[in-house]
Design brief:
Blueprint (H helix, E strand, L loop, with lengths): L2 E7 L3 H14 L5 E7 L6 H7 L5 E4 L5 H11 L5 E5 L3 E2 L4 H8 L6 E9 L16 H8 L15 E3 L7 E5 H6 L12 H11 L3 E12 L9 H19 L3 H20 L12 E5 L14 E4 L9 E6 L5 H9 L7 E6 L5 E4 L8 E4 L1
Parallel strand pairs: 1-2, 1-4, 2-3, 6-9, 10-11, 10-12, 12-13
Antiparallel strand pairs: 4-8, 5-9, 6-8, 7-9, 13-14, 14-15
Helix pairs in contact: 1-2, 8-9
């Protein structure tokens, strides 16, 4: 078997359903498998996903083990030459895996590879390519000072990079085992940084591939809020301890300092809300869908998208558009445009609306 896609889910059944649909299509001509490990979700994820008849191996965890442990367990059941760790709140293009398998000879001595990511508003996610977080870089990032946290390599090119994002990481199974898998000290966040660091320390090259783009509904699988701050900075403490081997006293001061930062940032945490007062609602499809009329008013049918429009909602019919076309549409959006994208599921049972950078997206059941 060539490829095993591993997805860890937690209370995000609708996003997982969309993700599985996109991954299944991308695997159509590939010898591969999909493994989902559910971290004891309370939203009925298992029954919901099983009702959708996806061809997957579903592992139902009886407790929330966190990202690292769950991935390591799922990886033990994988049969693929390559492992692709993927967040459940992502959409991949149909040609993602074929492109990689046909062109991976470009990646000499590959450790980990990650693809370009955009959010559901079409904005590039800089964490797709990062530099190693040295002490000075981490401090500057904490205080919002200009730093070299993100890599400067071409956003749309292929090149060496230090750190890749855990939302999408592709690695050979034998390399993953050689570098001792994910460090289970981490519950969430930081494990991707340390895995990338270990890959480099074992003599491998990490690659960022900006030639192919996937969508990450950033935050939908983790709930981007105060808990995020605690998890993120707690992980930075673990990373600092594991990588820099500080003295006990030094480590104590770092821990106290990070707790202070968590309190400080939580006091000033404000979600960035989008203006949702849209003048028009467009449906990009071949016909109007009756299921939408109770939730959306005055829908205008269009078979093509015109991004010259502003202050509008655009509903993308995933039965009419393929995922590659959807990604191309989002890629062409300007950051200044006030456009709200909605992703209409293939079974017309729900739509997923994009939201602001720090705001949870909205699921509308139809």
């Amino acid at each position: 078997m060539k490829l095993s896609v591993i997805i860890i889910s937690y209370n995000c059944k609708v996003y997982l359903d969309l993700c599985l649909h996109s991954v299944s299509i991308a695997l159509k001509n590939i010898s591969g498998e999909i493994i989902v490990y559910d971290n004891n979700s309370s939203d009925g994820t298992m029954d919901y996903i099983k009702s959708k008849n996806h061809e997957i191996l579903f592992i139902d965890g009886n407790e929330n083990l966190g990202f690292s442990k769950a991935n390591n367990i799922a990886a033990k059941s994988a049969n693929g030459e390559f492992l692709f760790f993927l967040n459940p709140d992502t959409l991949v293009p149909e040609n993602l895996f074929e492109n990689f398998l046909n062109n991976n000879h470009d990646c000499k001595n590959m450790g980990i590879l990650g693809f370009r990511m955009i959010d559901a508003n079409g904005q590039f996610l800089k964490e797709s390519k990062r530099n190693s977080p040295t002490k000075s870089i981490v401090l500057k990032k904490i205080f919002g000072i200009k730093n070299n946290y993100y890599s400067e390599i071409d956003e749309f090119g292929l090149g060496y990079v230090d750190i890749l994002c855990g939302a999408n990481m592709l690695i050979k199974s034998k390399v993953f085992n050689e570098i001792n898998c994910f460090n289970e000290d981490y519950f969430m966040y930081g494990e991707d940084i340390e895995l990338s660091h270990k890959s480099l320390s074992y003599g491998y090259n990490n690659y960022y591939d900006g030639r192919t783009t996937l969508i990450h509904f950033k935050g939908e699988s983790t709930k981007n809020d105060i808990r995020y701050l605690r998890n993120f900075y707690g992980s930075m403490h673990i990373y600092y301890k594991n990588i820099f081997s500080p003295s006990t006293l030094n480590l104590f001061f770092v821990k106290v300092f990070l707790k202070f930062i968590i309190v400080l940032k939580s006091l000033f945490y404000l979600p960035k809300f989008k203006n949702n007062n849209f003048k028009k609602t467009y449906l990009i499809s071949d016909s109007l869908k009756n299921c939408l009329f109770d939730k959306y008013q005055n829908i205008i049918l269009s078979k093509e998208i015109h991004l010259s429009e502003n202050d509008c909602r655009i509903i993308l019919d995933l039965n009419y558009l393929n995922f590659k076309q959807v990604i191309e549409i989002l890629n062409s959006k300007k950051s200044s445009d006030n456009i709200n994208f909605c992703f209409l599921s293939c079974d017309y049972k729900y739509s997923v609306e994009s939201s602001g950078m720090n705001q949870k997206g909205k699921v509308v059941f139809l």
